[in-house]
Write a structure and sequence with these properties.
Number of domains: 1
CATH class: Alpha Beta
Largest sheet: 8 strands, mixed
CATH topology: Spore Coat Polysaccharide Biosynthesis Protein SpsA, Chain A
Number of helices: 9
Radius of gyration: 17 Å
CATH architecture: Alpha-Beta Complex
């Protein structure tokens, strides 16, 4: 069985869309664990509305960060395959069925997928922010994770599959890491099972780029990558990335 783990903090605007997309999946053998950091908005209330449609459990943690939330959810998971999702993604109705089939066929131990911006479509090259989103996500992030999977495995935490036995062997996500804990997680997981970026796509919100500014957001991730290469994992708040900081 598949266990889907979703950390949340003030996700009222997005959580319903994700859970609705899970209701529409052609693959049905999964449970959903929403780990909420005591959101003051309507996140948990919206999630509870899906209790009759999904095998759904809502648990609470003390806002200790996204890594802590994912680890907490994994401890409660009944499935032998884990899927970590961010709350601001949407899946096509055949996503789980096709992803699980590919995961099994390629004999993977951990995996991620490619990303596509949720808001808007590609409409031009000059002076259009939607075009920039497509360029940033599809030509930068997707290109980087696609190429690096063979050299230095990496994945963005919006969508990570991992066998539960491997998750337990590596003791989950490193909760001391402030940024790019997802990259570090799949790197360690790849030591116990084959890691690949599967030929699947999830749609993800570009809200961080919207609020920070697209160039500034991109620059932050480039500097974070340089920091990892020369100074190791990011365990300070030098990049000021906080769980829930940009949630409405």
């Amino acid at each position: 069985m598949l266990s889907i783990i979703i950390p949340t903090l003030n996700e009222a605007e997005y959580i319903g869309k994700l859970l609705q997309s899970l209701c529409e999946q052609t693959y049905k053998e999964f449970e959903v664990i929403v780990v909420d950091a005591h959101s003051p908005d309507k996140t948990s209330g919206i999630a509870k509305n899906f209790s009759e449609k999904l095998k759904l459990k809502i648990v609470y943690q003390d806002g200790k960060g996204v890594a802590n939330a994912r680890n907490h959810g994994a401890k409660l998971a009944k499935g032998d395959l884990l899927l970590f999702l961010d709350a601001d993604v949407i899946l096509k109705d055949y996503f789980l069925e096709s992803a699980i089939a590919e995961f099994s066929r390629r004999k993977l131990g951990a995996a991620s997928v490619y990303m596509r911006p949720l808001e808007g479509e590609f409409v031009g090259i000059f002076g259009e922010k939607r075009a920039w989103d497509q360029i940033m996500w599809q030509l930068f992030f997707n290109f980087v994770i696609g190429v690096s999977q063979y050299i230095y495995p990496g994945a963005v935490g919006i969508c990570i599959f991992c066998k539960k036995e491997i998750h337990e062997k590596i003791r989950g996500f490193d909760e001391s890491i402030k940024l790019a804990e997802d990259f570090e997680y799949v790197r360690r997981a790849s030591q116990f099972g084959k890691f690949r970026v599967m030929q699947r796509t999830v749609f993800v919100s570009v809200r961080r780029a919207e609020l920070e500014g697209r160039l500034r957001n991109l620059l932050k991730y480039i500097l974070a990558a340089i920091h990892k290469i020369f100074f190791g994992e990011i365990k300070s708040d030098v990049f000021k990335y906080e769980f829930g900081k940009y949630k409405k």
